[in-house]
Amino acid sequence: MTKKELHQFRLKGLTSSRLGRGRKRIVRVVVDPHASTPEAKRVGWQLEQIPAGSRSPRGKRSRRWQLSLLWLSVMFFLGMTGTAGILLLTRLPPLPNCQNLPPLAADGDRLYCAQVAAQSGKLEQLVAAMNSVGRWPENHALYPEAQRLMEQWSQAILDRAQQKINQGDLSGALAIGSQIPVSSPLYPKAQSAIASWKESWQRGETITANFREALKVQNWPLANQQVLALAQIDQEYWSSPARQDLLLRQLAVEKEAWGQLESARELAKSNSLNNIVEAIALAGKVQSDSFVKAQAQAEQNRWSRTLVQIAQQHWQRQDYNGVVTIAEKVPVNTAAFSEAQALMRLGQAAKATTKDNLLGFIDAMAVTRQIPESSPLHQQAQTAQSNWQKQLQDRVQLQFAEAIAGVDQKNALQLAIDQALLVTPERPQRQQAQTLIAEWRQKIGRINDRATLIGARQIANQGTMEQLKAAIELASQIQLGQPLRIEAQTAIAQWNKQIQVFEDQPILDLARTFAQQQDLIAAIQAAQQIRPGRPLYSEAQTIVEDWIAQVQAAEDRPVLEAALALAAQGRLEAAIITASQIANGRPLYGQAQTAIAQWRSQLQAIQPVLPEAQ
């Protein structure tokens, strides 16, 4: 509603016609009852003319003239007043300045400015418009009009939020929809829509996640079910045919990719070089946007690693042509590619050394220098380069090493080993060098171990617990695989037993002391602290069993004596019941069972006589 509409008025018939002689024309201003709003009622007015009651025509003519003159004066005054009122009412007040609306502006002006701002359709303006009029109470004169406009503005905001959700922007839709205030008539509808969006979005994400999980595990029927489930969501973003087509295309891609990977795996199972190469090529055809691609890439890396290992085997056999042929088949997109390239260069360098000329060795060393430090084969390349430099000196080095080892001392043997280690694996003398190295290491080990074991025995001969522990610690330095390892372990076991005797003898002595004091329970508990596998365990168990028997006999003796007393009284059944309390395995069990058998025989003998006696 504009300011112009709020300032309407109506002017009802002011005519100059005469009503007749002796009649008056009276004009009054009244409130327009047809104004649409209370605000308009305050500014809408109308002019009505009311004929006054006529006097008797028989009055005096002199008074009629005076009255006519008086009424003409009144009519002139009222006419001028009415004209001024009409001019005042028809002049519209100026529109408010919405850009600089004062804090104490009238609510009508605020409503007008809010409507003007909302006409831009911008979200910020719509929200600001609702905030400016949304706090009016229900008894406010402009409350109905404000509510009507807020409903329009809220619907515009809700439509914009719906566009966001249709575009897949849940957060944007929620951010827009949540700006509808509680005072808006559409607030419940907005909250319901937000809840519905969240629920549908959650369902869509869950179904999509289930679809992806089904693809990952190759559960094609479940994936199809998820596509159908997605179509049932009451939200355009999720249920659109385009999204279903996208998922179905992805499903088809996954099926095809999985088939390719399975075929590649079947080829690779044979471990044939050609089949592995073909399997790598087939796995490389799997589309990059499929879930299977990660598995295919992993298989490519694994099979490429197998090719590198096969090439390494050819390297060990000095089949350098095979090294180059196999290494060049490793694809560039695999993790083993850089290592394969380095291995291929090493193979080419080694081929150059087979020419057995100085230029071949120079070329080979130049190739190995091109292998970067980051390569896994860098150290191998450096070793090969070093070996090629020293190949001509290998035999001289072995002879020199043998001469040194002839001294048969530890330092000399170690020096001989260091010299023999310079003979590299690809040299013909490598096997002889390894044989000599193993022999010299055994000699060094035997020398070291003999000295260690002699020292340990000397310490252990002192016989104290502390010295035995020190001997064990020293002998334990002889490691597994060394010549005197078994002899050292045998001595350690013997010394451990001696230590255990030292540890357990006080316990056993204490137990015997308790037994001498007739405290068999304490004696048993003390002796049982000696664990199985220790030297004094058997001795402890023997005396414990004896003490347990004594304790049980002492416990059962009163029971047996009570049974015997009952039997002496002729109460054989009570005697049997009492003696049966002695359990099997206890010392007096045999005596009890013998007595029970005797009493049962006596009962059987007297039972036929009992009826006659009665």
Topology:
Layout: E1 10-11, E2 25-31, H1 38-43, E3 45-51, H2 61-90, H3 107-118, H4 123-133, H5 143-166, H6 170-177, H7 187-216, H8 220-231, H9 236-239, H10 241-268, H11 273-283, H12 292-316, H13 320-327, H14 337-353, H15 358-368, H16 378-390, H17 394-405, H18 410-420, H19 430-460, H20 465-475, H21 485-516, H22 520-527, H23 537-568, H24 572-579, H25 589-606, H26 610-613
Helix pairs in contact: 3-4, 4-5, 5-6, 6-7, 7-8, 8-10, 10-11, 10-12, 11-12, 12-13, 12-14, 13-14, 14-15, 15-16, 17-18, 18-19, 19-20, 19-21, 20-21, 21-22, 22-23, 23-24, 24-25
Low-confidence stretches: 1-59, 87-92, 609-614
Helix content: 55-70%
- Give a quick account of the main beta sheet: strands, pairing sense, barrel closure: 3 strands, mixed
Distance between the termini: 126 Å
Number of strands: 3
Q: Summarize this, please?
A:
The protein has 614 residues and is mainly alpha-helical. It has helices spanning 38-43, 61-90, 107-118, 123-133, 143-166, 170-177, 187-216, 220-231, 236-239, 241-268, 273-283, 292-316, 320-327, 337-353, 358-368, 378-390, 394-405, 410-420, 430-460, 465-475, 485-516, 520-527, 537-568, 572-579, 589-606, 610-613; strands at 10-11, 25-31, 45-51.
What does this structure look like?
The protein is built from 26 helices and 3 strands. By secondary structure, it is mainly alpha-helical. Among the domains are: 5-90, no CATH class; 106-239; 441-535; 554-613, no CATH class. Helix 4 (123-133) packs antiparallel against helix 5. The longest helix is centred in the last third of the chain and has 32 residues, at 485-516. The chain starts with 9 loop residues before the first strand and ends with a helix.
